[in-house]
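The authors assume throughout that readers already know how a fold can be written as discrete tokens. Each protein is reduced to its one-letter sequence and a matching series of backbone shape codes. I therefore recommend that a typical entry be quoted early in the introduction. For illustration, here is how one protein appears when written out as sequence plus structure tokens:
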Amino acid sequence: MTHPPYKTRQDAVAGKGAWRCLSVCLLAGTLLLPSFPVSAAVFTLGDALRRALANQALVQQAQRVVAEKAALHRAAHADLLPSLSLAAGSIWTQTRNGQPLFVSANGPREVIGQIQLNIPLYAPQAYALQTLAHDQVAVARYQTRQARLLVAAQVTAAYYRLALWENELSVWREALGAARELLSATQKSTQAGTRSRLDLTQARLTLAGVQAGLDQATPEAAAARRVLALQTDYPASELPALVPISPPAGGLPGETVLTTQATQAQPLLQVAEGEIQAARTLLRYHQAARLPMVAALGAYGVDTATAPRAGQLAWQGAVTLQMPIFGFGRNRNRIAAAQEHLAAMEAGKRALLLQVRSRIAADYGVAQAADNALGNDRTMAQEAQAVYEMTRKGYLAGALSALALQQAENHWVQARLKLAGAAIRARLARAQLALDSGILPNSEEQP
């Protein structure tokens, strides 16, 4: 499945692409690696994931469903155990000449009062229902892992989006400080007569452009902070500072390793396998409808057509056999439907496995491209910084114009933004590969 095209940087940052609600879209924006020191309280991606998984209602809902299925499994298991009940009643029957009018009646008055013990001796459908309930518990647990992975995808996108905008702010603020210093130096040179008013106007224009970039990034950063705070159940004002984002260390794992890991840990595939097992059990349930059922009944009490007396209390026992003979094709059609359902589940898993492998192959190429872009952008940023420093010195020495300095500064700022964005894209591409293979990114927790 291909990623949708992004028309703007904001669309890319928002992560519009969807793959069974588990994908984290690659950011098409840029991010500067922070140059400020790390504070004592920093917020890592692992911290954000742990807090979100502990507080988000989506995970709690999935956990409640597991508890519900477990209770139903216990109830299905109890159906296989003996049951104790009380049967009591008094029946009066109309009589004629001393004889009851109903053939089934034993007398004009019947009294029953028994403690009955029902014991299923052979109940194949009940055994199949108990197994089906067990399979449904397993499916619910896999769906909980799927919900955790979905939450992790959303939090990862929100985390890197905030990192993007906060570090863009740091770029624009640093550029704003440099533009103000340049404007101050130009004003002094203009007063001294060594610079023209055109240079002063150009310096002011440079300052205005940097200020505009800062003004645009500020509300975006505030919005990204609110989103991450909501995802992690933090008040926006109390969200800790993010840990500085560094380029990924080491090379990518092999694509074969990721595919193998996905077949073992991807919750989507686990859910599909659990549904296949449940479909097999459902087929056995319908097949068991053709088998006999044997039960035993033990009772103690009284069952009499006369006035009950204490001496009439006694034990009673019975063994019953229920054998289906002919049902006009009802069982045959249900079995055929269950077989088709099982075949559909198996085909669905194969299709899902193909989708997972295709997704890993596509995202692996994206990760490789992100690593290559990171190296290229690092070189470009170094060259742009060297050009800016030389141009700035030449401008202050009076050898270059303000227009040349403005162009050099603009290229320098954009190169820094692009470099930082490449680092984020490389990090996020690896996080996407982790999600594709069914594990949480940058965290010790396994799904």
